[in-house]
Amino acid sequence: MSLALVLFALHVAAAPAPALSASERRYLDARAAANARFADADTESPDEGDRARAELAAQLRTIVGPVRLAGIEGPGEPAYEGFWGVGSQEMADGLSFKWRGSNLFVTTPALFARTAVTTQPIDDQTVDEILVSRTVIVDAAYTTFTAVPVRHGPSTLLARASVGLVAQDIGPWPPKTLVVHVERGGRVYVVGTDLSPGLEQVAACKAKWDPRMREAAFARYRRCVGAVLPTRPSFAAVIRRAQAIVDALQADDPPGLAAERRPEAK
User: Fold this and answer.
1) Which pLDDT band holds residue 43 (cuts at 50, 70, 90)?
2) pLDDT digits (tens, 9 = 90+) for 249-264
3) Using an 8 Å Cβ cutoff, are 81 and 61 in contact?
4) How many domains does the chain have?
5) What residue numbers bound the domain in which 143 lies?
6) What global pTM score does this model have?
């Protein structure tokens, strides 16, 4: 993982989590109650389960939204599909959208930080990579290869990007997914999009692959590709794509109500 992403991961781990608002606490309490009530799928009637999910979705839309992005599809759906995933280690609390051919996850800093501080590294996956998998990547792991430099304006607290590989296995495969993370206006945005065309193979790095030592070989391959790709002419297109996403998030979605949120009375 690049130095920039290492420093960000350390910052997330060390920084105190933002305080939850009263509405966020009510949502989390309601979600926990629904999880307990419907822990056994056999006890969940379709009507009761649908009503509970609709109530939680409405709370999330009030807390997170409205999200006014040009090209966004729908009001956003909770990032989980059922009570087995609500608040579990599989998904984060927030809304998922389709946006300009990309997957977009939107939440609040407090809800995102709560997910971050309760996430533990597993195997070779860092907290940062797991958070990507819990927001915009489904049913596969995300492995970072290198950071992508992006700029942001003064109203934006954070903007960063990386390219990585989404796969259920490991192998000598170049990264083909761009992930952009922006925090502004009281919201956290995570965008995951496929690179088309994908980044080219680096022959010298592929030569480092040894199927007899898969984990070590993949680590060498990833470090090699991560170091070489930023020097390739094709990486300029990746930088432009990442910057265009950051610019769109800054230009199209004014802070609105989310920026005006204040701690609510208990």
Assistant:
1) low
2) 998 765 543 333 333 4
3) no
4) 1
5) 3-259
6) 0.85
